[in-house]
Amino acid sequence: MASNYQTFKQLHHSDRLLVLPNAWDAYSASLLEKHPFPAVATSSAAVAQALGYADGENMPFTDYLFVVGRIADSIQVPLSVDIEMGYGSSAAAIAENIRRLTDLGVVGINIEDSVFVGSRRVLKDASSFARMLDEVRNLLWSKELFINVRCDTYILNVDGRREETRRRLPLYESAGADGIFLPCIAEEEDILDAMGHTRLPLNVMYIPGLAGVDELQRLGVRRLSLGPAVFSEAYRQVGVFTNQLFTNKKTTV
């Protein structure tokens, strides 16, 4: 019988697009598992906001571990965790944080190639990030772990983003990444260009205007992350419900 790690890895190499929902607590994860989805991930932004923190590693990692542990105990399908920038200033510290996640049963992570400088998020030097990634992978050589690298060229809308993406993806592939995540990429030409510069499965994020599931599958995208979309919709419904309640309208939720 395949392990959760093996199952999760195989889902990225299937002919069927993996639609991966992002939970923020144990209950949302269990609901998503029942939908059913073949795997569940966390949204760091959603977990942070649910606990009253801003996104960007403002949530204490111990708080995050508690939530991840509750999620892991609540589902049977593979679990991947958005670890943001790694919650550490060195490869050793980041590897130790990841090891604590794998001890909870986590089989995949997302890690970002950008960093906050003051209040501004900027790309890390690509070569330095790749070296760190290679060191983390070596420190975790005994762990069954799918490392999905979030390349932030499109979400930050950097100048020459297509060319910068081309430069970064081979470096990350050589450093031991298992997948590439390009949030906010949407144009077909950009998606195809990115896939032409790596053999790794490409992950995109749901945003308004993105192609549908069938079209993404036709293009060869292997994973569609829902990001904070489910969380945002769930909390939007709070406003819908209360508005209907206090305007004496018939409820539809």
In CATH terms, the superfamily is Phosphoenolpyruvate-binding domains
- How would the global form be characterised? globular
Strand order of the largest sheet: 1-11-10-9-8-5-4-3-2
First and last CA, distance: 41 Å
Q: What is the CATH T-level topology?
A: TIM Barrel
Number of domains: 1
Main sheet properties: 9 strands, parallel
List the helices and strands and how they pair.
Layout: H1 4-11, E1 18-20, E2 22-23, H2 26-34, E3 40-42, H3 44-50, H4 61-74, E4 79-82, H5 91-103, E5 108-112, E6 114-117, E7 120-123, H6 126-139, E8 146-150, H7 161-174, E9 179-181, H8 188-195, E10 202-205, H9 213-219, E11 223-225, H10 229-246
Parallel strand pairs: 1-11, 2-3, 3-4, 4-5, 5-8, 8-9, 9-10, 10-11
Antiparallel strand pairs: 6-7
Walk me through this protein's architecture:
By secondary structure, this protein is α/β, with parallel strands linked by helices. It has ten helices and eleven strands. The chain has one domain: Phosphoenolpyruvate-binding domains (TIM Barrel), CATH 3.20.20. Strands 1-11-10-9-8-5-4-3-2 form a nine-stranded parallel sheet, sandwiched between helices. A two-stranded antiparallel sheet has the order 6-7. The model has no long low-confidence stretch (mean pLDDT 96).
